């Protein structure tokens, strides 16, 4: 079973290395990982996709929660959430007919052509993983030259994680930094 976990972490050097090292040392495989800043400059959000049963998920959560720089961990399994994946894909275009066919696919999948070369198109597409996979399957016959994906990101529809970490809360980043000193 696939689980999407989101961890609000302190925005400081070494956090990603520490967390990925912990996951590797305990043989947890990360299917997807996306990291980026949040609306609060003190925090970054890490979104993981991991495979395994409830026992594996429970172990991953407990290990993440033990790390001092991890402020909060949320499992989206029982949440109402929105998820997206972003991909850039370069596809071979041998003729104007092929370009036309690819343009139709781009429109159907609500993607965008972001670069045009002599014999290739670069296409940007975002959406749920199954949409991205379906687009890959649809353009594969034309010849995929190269592709890059971001990994999955997700946000719960309920109150935001960062707002739950209020100033004065012992898990707030500045308070944690003071406690560590």
TrEMBL record:
It catalyses: 2 pyruvate + H(+) = (2S)-2-acetolactate + CO2. One of its GO terms (cellular component) is cytosol. It is an enzyme of class 2 (transferase). Pathway: Amino-acid biosynthesis; L-valine biosynthesis; L-valine from pyruvate: step 1/4; Amino-acid biosynthesis; L-isoleucine biosynthesis; L-isoleucine from 2-oxobutanoate: step 1/4. One of its GO terms (molecular function) is acetolactate synthase activity. InterPro entries: Acetalactate_synth_ssu, Acetolactate_synth/TF_NikR_C, Acetolactate_synth_ssu_C, ACT-like_dom_sf, ACT_dom, AHAS_ACT, AHAS_small-like_ACT. Residues 4-79 form the ACT domain. One of its GO terms (biological process) is L-valine biosynthetic process. Its EC number is 2.2.1.6. Pfam families: ACT_AHAS_ss, ALS_ss_C. Keywords: Amino-acid biosynthesis, Branched-chain amino acid biosynthesis, Transferase. Catalyzes the conversion of 2 pyruvate molecules into acetolactate in the first common step of the biosynthetic pathway of the branched-amino acids such as leucine, isoleucine, and valine. Dimer of large and small chains. Belongs to the acetolactate synthase small subunit family. This is Acetolactate synthase small subunit.
